């Protein structure tokens, strides 16, 4: 099982989109500065905004790429407030 996750930092008011097989430890890694060259190093208050379960890594990578290409804060926020969008995207990238 793979996941697309979206983190939010209140101090920077920014979102971060990533993909992983292990969501539970990923948030802690981002907050601890484990990823030295990552955008997430700018803050240590990241919180889980949204977690999307995918059937495999290929689907997760395609979904992650699609969300990033939107370059839209409003789109990211709609993913959480309108779960049907996520369902439609998962079907699209199946």
Automatic annotation (TrEMBL):
<protein>
    <submittedName>
        <fullName>Endonuclease</fullName>
    </submittedName>
</protein>
<keyword id="KW-0255">Endonuclease</keyword>
<keyword id="KW-0378">Hydrolase</keyword>
<keyword id="KW-0540">Nuclease</keyword>
<dbReference type="InterPro" id="IPR035901">
    <property type="entry name" value="GIY-YIG_endonuc_sf"/>
</dbReference>
<feature type="domain" description="GIY-YIG">
    <location>
        <begin position="1"/>
        <end position="77"/>
    </location>
</feature>
<dbReference type="GO" id="GO:0004519">
    <property type="term" value="F:endonuclease activity"/>
</dbReference>
<dbReference type="InterPro" id="IPR000305">
    <property type="entry name" value="GIY-YIG_endonuc"/>
</dbReference>
<dbReference type="Pfam" id="PF01541">
    <property type="entry name" value="GIY-YIG"/>
</dbReference>
């Amino acid at each position: 099982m793979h996941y697309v996750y979206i983190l939010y930092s209140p101090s920077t008011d920014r979102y971060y989109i990533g993909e992983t097989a292990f969501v539970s430890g990923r948030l802690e890694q981002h907050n601890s500065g484990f990823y030295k060259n990552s955008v997430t190093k700018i803050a240590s208050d990241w919180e889980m905004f949204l977690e999307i379960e995918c059937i495999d890594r290929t689907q997760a990578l395609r979904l992650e790429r699609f969300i990033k290409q939107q370059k839209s804060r409003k789109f990211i926020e709609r993913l959480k407030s309108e779960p049907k969008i996520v369902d439609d995207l998962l079907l699209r990238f199946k």
